[in-house]
Task: inverse folding
């Protein structure tokens, strides 16, 4: 049900609900691997489902993991990240200045990627990869700041935070697909 408006989706779900139980079961059976109670449209195939992890390059395991790694050289090869506290720093400083490089002439800069949010994001990540003390082998899924807020949010807030979380994950998956293309 990708690409349907909420109203169309609701109509589609109503149609499914009216099917005889046996037909509905067949419909759901196809998706059984993802959990019994998961309706087909709720299943999201993430980037992780599309690529297999090579255990030889991943400490012998075929899944993502988190581990404490010590040693300057080993840590240097890991992804640099940020946290609530230093995120603002990277935002404020922006891309790392480039030393010992020739000047960039005005017309060399004129590709349409200049100053795009993705490019800026890439530059910030590059900066973090060079200097950040937060290191991880596998980058954790990104979450918006309000995601871990405790208490009872309103339905509106929940939808808002979830939408932002979905967008962050989608952006990162798009970035991974771009890098592997
Ligand atoms: Zn930090």
Result:
């Amino acid at each position: 049900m990708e690409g349907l408006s909420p109203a169309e989706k609701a109509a589609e779900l109503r149609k499914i609900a009216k099917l005889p139980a046996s037909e509905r079961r067949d419909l759901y059976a196809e998706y059984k691997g993802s959990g019994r109670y998961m309706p087909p449209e709720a299943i999201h195939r993430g980037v992780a489902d599309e690529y297999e992890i090579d255990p030889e390059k991943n400490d012998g395991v075929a899944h993502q993991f988190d581990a404490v790694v010590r040693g300057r050289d080993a840590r240097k090869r890991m992804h640099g990240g940020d946290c609530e506290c230093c995120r603002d720093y990277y935002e404020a400083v922006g891309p790392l200045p480039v030393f010992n490089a020739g000047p960039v002439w005005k017309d060399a800069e004129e590709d349409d990627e200049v100053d795009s949010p993705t490019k800026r994001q890439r530059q910030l990540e590059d900066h973090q990869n060079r200097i950040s003390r937060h290191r991880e082998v596998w980058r954790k899924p990104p979450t918006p700041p309000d995601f871990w807020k405790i208490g009872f949010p309103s339905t509106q807030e929940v939808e808002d935070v979830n939408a932002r979380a979905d967008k962050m994950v989608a952006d990162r998956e798009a970035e991974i697909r771009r890098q592997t293309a």
